[in-house]
Design a protein that fits this description.
Blueprint: H1 2-5, H2 16-43, H3 46-68, H4 73-104, H5 110-131, H6 139-168, H7 172-217
Helix pairs in contact: 2-3, 2-5, 3-4, 3-6, 3-7, 4-7, 5-6, 6-7
């Protein structure tokens, strides 16, 4: 019944602590979106702009997660499908930006990439630590964890790209990292959508069982 009507009071997603963690994550990601987008445009860095869009997508992810807290499994799974589509869409956009910059040519500012990338890494590590205890659960909680984990990986890749640009004198490392971001988004969206579809089937089956049980009791 908890799966159909709402999570139990002891489930992690129903706790005030988890709600506070999501609010912190939402604010951190919203601020870092603005910081990285401005820095990425100034530095002409594909990886920084891609990472900033990732921050924006994650802020939306956390907002949706907050909106469905306390709802039943079916609604949480539907929200996860929306987030999966958003994540995959982000991957397509980043892939397009990467290919565009590859064709037109660009040379990003490595020091700016390194400084802002390191700041973003610290921000995402702090959020990751807060979410560590909530990494297991339904597709909604899984999507939050996957996005944050991908952010940390992406930030490390931005730092490597900055070193690569500085050492090679070319934009190729920056473009490669843009491709990595696209892959992580597309694969993460697929994983979330697959689990969410399974949860939707489970919710429908439980609803049918309850309907049959209610009919037989009369």
């Amino acid at each position: 019944m908890a799966c159909c009507c709402g999570p139990s009071s002891s489930s992690p997603q129903s706790t005030p602590r988890y709600r506070r963690v999501l609010w912190i994550a939402l604010l951190v990601n919203a601020v870092m979106f603005g910081v990285e987008m401005l820095a990425g445009m100034k530095a002409d860095s594909t990886s920084l702009m891609a990472d900033s869009l990732d921050f924006l997508g994650d802020a939306a992810n956390y907002a949706i997660s907050l909106g469905v807290l306390g709802m039943g499994l079916m609604w949480r799974a539907r929200a996860s499908l929306i987030k999966a589509a958003t994540l995959a869409g982000f991957g397509v956009v980043v892939l397009g930006v990467t290919l565009h910059n590859l064709l037109v040519g660009s040379y990003p500012d490595a020091p700016t990439m390194g400084a802002v990338g390191f700041l973003a890494l610290l921000a995402n590590l702090a959020v990751l630590v807060l979410l560590m205890r909530y990494r297991e659960g339904d597709s909604n909680m899984q999507s939050v964890w996957i996005c944050t984990r991908n952010d940390v990986i992406g930030n490390g890749a931005v730092l490597l790209a900055a070193l690569g640009v500085f050492g090679s004198g070319t934009a190729l490392p920056d473009l490669i990292v843009g491709g990595v971001f696209a892959f992580l988004s597309l694969s993460g969206g697929w994983k979330i959508a697959r689990q969410a579809r399974g949860e939707l089937r489970q919710a429908h089956e439980m609803a049918r069982s309850e309907t049959v049980s209610a009919g037989s009791s009369h």
